[in-house]
Design the sequence.
């Protein structure tokens, strides 16, 4: 039986790369995104029959949406085994300009969404005695980088801690929980945030002298989502070209 995965924020960018990689690796995949049209377009591109890919409108701030996704996976494929918490919002603002409402919005999506999803799916995984949760963190959550906003950096630091908490509580139930902390990736969203002249400087600062490959991150997600990753939990995988070493 194929394993089934939900990827939040899966309709574009890194999320879409993860969806494609999981599907290519043999997973059934739900593309959960607030942009239902874009999610449907990607699903049709990957599998027009809908047999192995399902697009679902998902607002990660809403527990009911997660429960509906889980129910759809149970109905279509008999269960769910993998959750990838990828949904994110960024807001590149100087720290002194961030309003409380801006801070709350970023935290509700980036941290709250991962928390709610991990609760809903974690309960199902624990009951089944098997599951994989993969959280997409960021280098910004490790080194305090604020190019994408101080609230974004704070949210990604919280994701790393949340990963450890869920990993510890779910380990005895056959569920692993890990995080990936990418550095700057070669994505349209990164190129929009970083002016062209600053991008060259950024690449010069990266020890390997290039931006990261989203497809490589997606391959790492596939590894952590697989059955063979059962002895790795509570870990944060650094993929940053040498910008942060420990």
Sequence:
């Amino acid at each position: 039986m194929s394993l089934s995965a939900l990827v939040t924020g899966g309709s574009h960018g890194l999320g879409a790369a993860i969806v494609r990689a999981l599907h290519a690796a043999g997973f059934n995949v739900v593309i959960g995104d607030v942009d239902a049209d874009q999610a449907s377009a990607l699903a049709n591109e990957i599998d027009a029959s809908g047999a192995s890919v399902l697009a679902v409108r998902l607002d990660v701030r809403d527990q009911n949406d997660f429960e509906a996704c889980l129910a759809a996976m149970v109905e279509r494929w008999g269960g769910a085994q993998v959750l990838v918490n990828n949904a994110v919002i960024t807001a590149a603002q100087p720290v002194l300009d961030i309003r409380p409402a801006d801070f709350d919005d970023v935290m509700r999506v980036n941290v709250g969404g991962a928390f709610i999803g991990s609760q809903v799916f974690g309960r199902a995984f624990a009951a089944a005695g098997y599951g994989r949760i993969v959280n997409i963190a960021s280098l910004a959550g490790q080194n305090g980088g604020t190019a994408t906003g101080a609230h974004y950096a704070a949210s990604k630091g919280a994701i790393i801690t949340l990963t450890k908490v869920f990993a510890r509580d779910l380990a005895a139930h056959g569920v692993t929980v890990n995080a990936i902390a990418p550095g700057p990736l070669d994505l349209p969203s990164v190129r929009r945030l970083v002016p062209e002249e600053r991008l060259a400087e950024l690449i010069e600062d990266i020890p390997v002298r290039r931006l990261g490959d989203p497809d490589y991150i997606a391959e790492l997600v596939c590894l952590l989502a697989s059955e063979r990753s059962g002895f790795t939990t509570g870990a944060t995988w650094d993929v940053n070209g040498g910008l942060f070493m420990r």
